[in-house]
Amino acid sequence: MDIEILTRPFPLCIYGLSDIATSKDYVGTAFKLSGRMWELIKTHNIKNKGKNIWVYGLNDHVFAGVELEQTLDDNFGLDRMEIILEKFARYKHVGSYHLIKQTGQSMQSELAKQGYSIILPYIEIYGHWTSDESKLETELIMSLK
Length: 145
Known about the structure:
Multidrug-efflux Transporter 1 Regulator Bmrr, Chain A, alpha+beta
């Protein structure tokens, strides 16, 4: 597993929606939030970079957002989240979304073997959609202590 460890700031400013993952259903919560977020983005014709970004935080908090190409005067019901990671691990998962959880667990195990402590937030950045599951790309980003 080729995990990249970075110690330069990773700033992220996204707009989206958040909620608590009921019964720890993180993926279901993120899908629901993403659907509502994209409805708002499309309804208000908000220019964006087109990639779903899911942020998992403390106390089962989930945020589904997108980077924008413009500054908003009106957020149209979207929340703004700004994150700056100082030290993090990054891995590019290529393949089915159904394997992301397994890949994330393997990443955690590998980082633990290397002596790293993982902290929240944990971020998934989904690449542009393709119907060929073998070509789907998702960046997994784990904050490190």
